[in-house]
Amino acid sequence: MILIFTTLNKKENAEKIGTELLKERIVACYNLYPVESAYWWKGKITQEKEILTIFKTRKENFEKVEDYLKKHSGYETPEVVAIEASKFSKPYLDWIRAETGI
């Protein structure tokens, strides 16, 4: 099981992407958090409001999420970071497996 983190430019975009990944059963769920980001981009520091999106899925679905975000995030270089979960409650892990186990 992994958690995939990305930032997106608008809540509506994050909801659309999350819903599409849910419909395809690539992810079991997602969470949205408003954040303020600052980062280097093309030689200067950029600051903007973004939506941090966290997807919960199987490790083998990373590339599917990454490919989708590359096509639909609206960013030239989208953030796609996965963290492998070391511990989960068994019922929650079973639920994620069931929801993404087509």
UniProtKB/TrEMBL annotation:
MF (Gene Ontology): copper ion binding
GO biological processes: response to metal ion
Homology family: Belongs to the CutA family.
InterPro entries found in the cross-reference section: Ion_tolerance_CutA, N-reg_PII-like_a/b, N-reg_PII/ATP_PRibTrfase_C
Organism: Candidatus Woykebacteria bacterium RBG_13_40_15
Protein name: Cytochrome C biogenesis protein CcdA
